[in-house]
Design goal:
mainly beta; about 45% strand
Amino acid sequence: MLVSIREVHVGMFSESVDVVCTAEGQPESVTWAGESYTVCAEPVRWYERRQWWAEDSRAPLGSGPGVVDHEIWRVQVLPARMPSRSAQHLEAESPEPLTLDLARHLRSNRWRLMRIHDALRHRTA
């Protein structure tokens, strides 16, 4: 039985990832756990309030994104490189997109994988 990476890491956690963005700042590719993924659908962005009072002694007046809020991106990705197989097998086994929530720390421009939304899937050889 082959086990895919989505079976190992499903749910909520925080892990460092590398993200390449477009000129407009949208994620276009993700490297995680040694695997490269390409964003295959329009990403969605929002901001979430972080517990700045637990991390900093005070937030500057008028603070917003980066100090009080986290920038979150929900992306759908596919493996960047498909294993070499015949076209018939490739069509029969085309992967489903993996849905990820990524958080970007605006001051450092560092990215974290926060959540994987897809269910566990067992694949057989």
